[in-house]
Amino acid sequence: MHETQPQDIPTHLAVIMDGNGRWARSRGLLRIEGHRNGVNAVRRTIEGAAEIGIQYLTLFSFSSENWRRPEEEVGELMNLLRRYLKSEIADLHAKGIRFRVIGDRARLSKDIVRLVEEAESTTAENTGMTLVLALSYGGRHDIAEAARKLATSVSLGLIRADAIDETVFAAHLGTAGIPDPDLLIRTSGERRISNFLLWECAYTEFVFLDKFWPDFGKEDLQQAVDEYGKRERRYGATAGTR
């Protein structure tokens, strides 16, 4: 049996929470019931990640492409988000968890943006795990926005074009100040990252699970972390340099 060592625990875990709709359909329920049950899996994952010692947990909660879903479903998802922000932040704050949102806030309703800003402000000084919600988020959009910001800075003479390197570019992404994910988990059996953290996942380890998101629990999380701990991350170097 693999014995977990401190270096075997990912600093940053990212999760694509997939399969809510199929979970509901397999039970003859409406899709929204899958999303509602998915919130329970979110709670379990946050609690489990904190117990394991993960420092950053990023959850892909709503993608830029999800806006294309039927208006009724999008509305239900936004209502779920409102309820989550109103009911869960106090508990996260009490546990010392810092809350942060990445994504295009311009497409969100004003009341949700206000709730997000209040949650971020309330938990800003917390020193426990950082919970990041990727909301109205798309990796390509985030990269394009970073390029636009840098182009503007160059045109204004604030930075030289030849001074732009990977570090400078990364500082203009929505994830600025957050380490790249060490491990990404995707549920539901899909084997792709779906425009999620494209820049940041350059050397991320992937674990794909067949289980639908509402059924994901602490044991699944621990098994994925154990699998991560068995891998040797070489970053292009030779074996034995981890």
Automatic annotation (TrEMBL):
<keyword id="KW-0808">Transferase</keyword>
<dbReference type="GO" id="GO:0008834">
    <property type="term" value="F:ditrans,polycis-undecaprenyl-diphosphate synthase [(2E,6E)-farnesyl-diphosphate specific] activity"/>
</dbReference>
<feature type="binding site">
    <location>
        <position position="69"/>
    </location>
    <ligand>
        <name>substrate</name>
    </ligand>
</feature>
<dbReference type="GO" id="GO:0000287">
    <property type="term" value="F:magnesium ion binding"/>
</dbReference>
<feature type="active site">
    <location>
        <position position="18"/>
    </location>
</feature>
<keyword id="KW-0460">Magnesium</keyword>
<keyword id="KW-0479">Metal-binding</keyword>
<dbReference type="GO" id="GO:0005829">
    <property type="term" value="C:cytosol"/>
</dbReference>
<comment type="similarity">
    <text>Belongs to the UPP synthase family.</text>
</comment>
<feature type="binding site">
    <location>
        <position position="67"/>
    </location>
    <ligand>
        <name>substrate</name>
    </ligand>
</feature>
<feature type="binding site">
    <location>
        <position position="23"/>
    </location>
    <ligand>
        <name>substrate</name>
    </ligand>
</feature>
<feature type="binding site">
    <location>
        <begin position="19"/>
        <end position="22"/>
    </location>
    <ligand>
        <name>substrate</name>
    </ligand>
</feature>
<feature type="binding site">
    <location>
        <begin position="63"/>
        <end position="65"/>
    </location>
    <ligand>
        <name>substrate</name>
    </ligand>
</feature>
<dbReference type="InterPro" id="IPR036424">
    <property type="entry name" value="UPP_synth-like_sf"/>
</dbReference>
<feature type="binding site">
    <location>
        <position position="186"/>
    </location>
    <ligand>
        <name>substrate</name>
    </ligand>
</feature>
<comment type="subunit">
    <text>Homodimer.</text>
</comment>
<feature type="binding site">
    <location>
        <position position="31"/>
    </location>
    <ligand>
        <name>substrate</name>
    </ligand>
</feature>
<feature type="active site" description="Proton acceptor">
    <location>
        <position position="66"/>
    </location>
</feature>
<dbReference type="GO" id="GO:0016094">
    <property type="term" value="P:polyprenol biosynthetic process"/>
</dbReference>
<dbReference type="InterPro" id="IPR001441">
    <property type="entry name" value="UPP_synth-like"/>
</dbReference>
<protein>
    <recommendedName>
        <fullName>Isoprenyl transferase</fullName>
        <ecNumber>2.5.1.-</ecNumber>
    </recommendedName>
</protein>
<dbReference type="Pfam" id="PF01255">
    <property type="entry name" value="Prenyltransf"/>
</dbReference>
<comment type="function">
    <text>Catalyzes the condensation of isopentenyl diphosphate (IPP) with allylic pyrophosphates generating different type of terpenoids.</text>
</comment>
<feature type="binding site">
    <location>
        <begin position="192"/>
        <end position="194"/>
    </location>
    <ligand>
        <name>substrate</name>
    </ligand>
</feature>
<feature type="binding site">
    <location>
        <position position="205"/>
    </location>
    <ligand>
        <name>Mg(2+)</name>
    </ligand>
</feature>
<feature type="binding site">
    <location>
        <position position="35"/>
    </location>
    <ligand>
        <name>substrate</name>
    </ligand>
</feature>
<dbReference type="InterPro" id="IPR018520">
    <property type="entry name" value="UPP_synth-like_CS"/>
</dbReference>
<feature type="binding site">
    <location>
        <position position="18"/>
    </location>
    <ligand>
        <name>Mg(2+)</name>
    </ligand>
</feature>
